[in-house]
Design goal:
Blueprint (H helix, E strand, L loop, with lengths): L1 H18 L5 E3 L6 E3 L2 E2 L4 E4 L7 H13 L4 E4 L48 H16 L3 E8 H6 L4 H15 L5 E7 L6 H12 L28 E4 L13 H10 L6 E5 L8
Parallel strand pairs: 4-5, 5-6, 6-7, 8-9
Antiparallel strand pairs: 1-2, 2-3
Helix pairs in contact: 2-3, 5-6
């Protein structure tokens, strides 16, 4: 009887450990802070664009190392992205596989990855198992995950319809909308000229999440038109990407000052520090 009682206690403890997650991120009543458990939190995240190419053991090493270094979040984890983007032939980015060797979509194979458009209405669950693992391992370490679903260039460059984009957003929302340690950066380097199709994706995610997870956009600058969208909870602003003149060498002080003064009030988060060398 005593042994059975001890076994039950151990099983209950194991179950609680499996499903224990950090408190969901929320916005403070005055609209100025991101909070966790009712207290302001400083999100310190490391960007990991290609992290899904790691094996599970490598994911463990990466997350445990970042935890030991003081990070409480990781950002990115895109399901598909190409080196140097437009410098590569059309469709070649589908060569990106997860650490278990799976492509993001069921119609992509080793033989056709360089020239076949990924069918985003038919995601490969075996690929996204890696992202499940990232989120669940992060929860175990009391860390948050800021998800970027797609780089902005892909949703405006290829022959995906609005319905296709919405289908992919619905898949993401249903799959990751129940994790308390997930928040959404949604689309990487979102620009105002693609706001319609980007909103289609963001709204499809937002309409299918089980928890009230917080949303922002990985914008190029804070004046792209996303802050007026109903799904936006906080302002995400990247830092400058280099020292050369150009659209990415932004005035971060001016951007943050303008964002902080904007109405309606929302938290302002510099999601990415400046990079002195980006092209390499």
């Amino acid at each position: 009887m005593i042994k059975r009682f001890i076994l039950i206690i151990l099983l209950l403890s194991f179950s609680i450990n499996i499903y224990a997650q950090p408190p969901i991120l929320t916005i403070s009543a005055n609209g100025r802070y991101i909070e966790a458990g009712g207290e302001p939190i400083f999100l310190l995240g490391d960007t990991c664009w290609w992290g899904l190419k790691l094996s599970k053991s490598e994911i463990d090493i990466f997350l445990e190392t970042r935890k030991a270094q003081g990070f409480n979040a990781t950002l990115g984890w895109e399901p598909f992205i190409a080196p140097n983007r437009d410098r590569y032939p059309k469709y070649q980015h589908w060569h990106h596989r997860n650490g278990e060797g799976y492509f993001a979509f069921n119609n992509i194979t080793v033989g056709n990855a360089a020239y076949t458009l990924g069918d985003i209405t038919d995601p490969n669950d075996d690929f996204f198992d890696s992202l499940d693992y990232v989120i669940e391992k992060s929860a175990e370490l009391d860390m948050y995950v800021g998800l970027i679903v797609v780089w902005n260039g892909w949703i405006g460059r290829y022959e995906w319809s609005a319905a296709d984009i919405a289908s992919f957003g619905e898949y993401y929302g249903n799959r990751y909308g129940g994790y308390s340690n997930v928040f959404w950066l949604c689309v990487g380097e979102a620009t105002g000229d693609r706001i319609t199709i980007t909103n289609t994706l963001a709204n499809a995610i937002h309409d299918n999440i089980a928890l009230d997870q917080i949303f922002t956009m990985h914008q190029t600058t804070p004046d792209q038109g996303y802050n007026e969208q109903s799904y936006m909870d906080f302002d995400g602003i990247p830092g400058p990407h280099g020292v050369e003149p150009g659209p990415w060498n932004v005035n971060i002080y001016e951007n943050i000052t303008n964002a902080y003064a904007r109405s309606p009030t929302m938290p302002v988060w510099m999601m990415k520090l400046g990079m002195t060398v980006y092209k390499s």
